[in-house]
Amino acid sequence: MSTPRKRPRQQRSKETVAAILEAAAQLFGRHGYTATTTNRVAERAGVSIGSLYQYFPNKDALLTALAEEHLAEAVQVLDQALDACARERPDLPGLVSGLVGAVAELHTGRPRLHRLLFDQAPRVPELVARLRAIERRAAAGLAAELRRLGRGGDDPELAALLAVQGVEAQIHGAVVDPPPGRSAAACLAAVAALWTRALDVPAR
């Protein structure tokens, strides 16, 4: 079983779960998946192993819960970025830079942890479905802006979806783990330039 066992309802239980997840995030980010154990997580969180097991039956359940938190944060950050675009009506480079910056914000705070979530978090069907829904939601907002700008080629909706998925994958790769001799900032600029060129096709 790789999903959390139960959801906290009382405030004290919520605080316990928050402490466990913060401890897990720190240990996974610092030591990786293999070296992190539920005993170490419980010790770092200041709770008994029995208390941890009330909510999380194993390490995979901890990773799943952290992935759920990450997706919830993604909705908030991307919605804020798209709302800003709707208000400010940027040009195409500004639009793409806003998208790239929002995705980078999600993944560069704890890069090792996000790499672990991307590479090793269980592919629970509900999480995959939520990820796809977030991608479609972000793509719909981006497509609306592309249509406003008269860009995106024959199918702005498809172009927007490919851009959202491409930016996410590229930030997980080159930006979180830059190639030798390149900084994260240089990789971010390259991703933004790449997708600005790709989307700069007149709509038909």
Automatic annotation (TrEMBL):
Signal peptide: none annotated. InterPro entries: DNA-bd_HTH_TetR-type_CS, Homeodomain-like_sf, HTH-type_TetR-like_transc_reg, HTH_TetR, TetR_C_15. Keywords: DNA-binding, Transcription, Transcription regulation. Residues 14-74 form the HTH tetR-type domain. Coiled coil: none annotated. GO terms for molecular function: DNA-binding transcription factor activity; transcription cis-regulatory region binding. The keyword Coiled coil does not apply. The keyword Phosphoprotein does not apply. It comes from the Bacteria. Residues 37-56 bind DNA. This is TetR family transcriptional regulator. It comes from Allonocardiopsis opalescens.
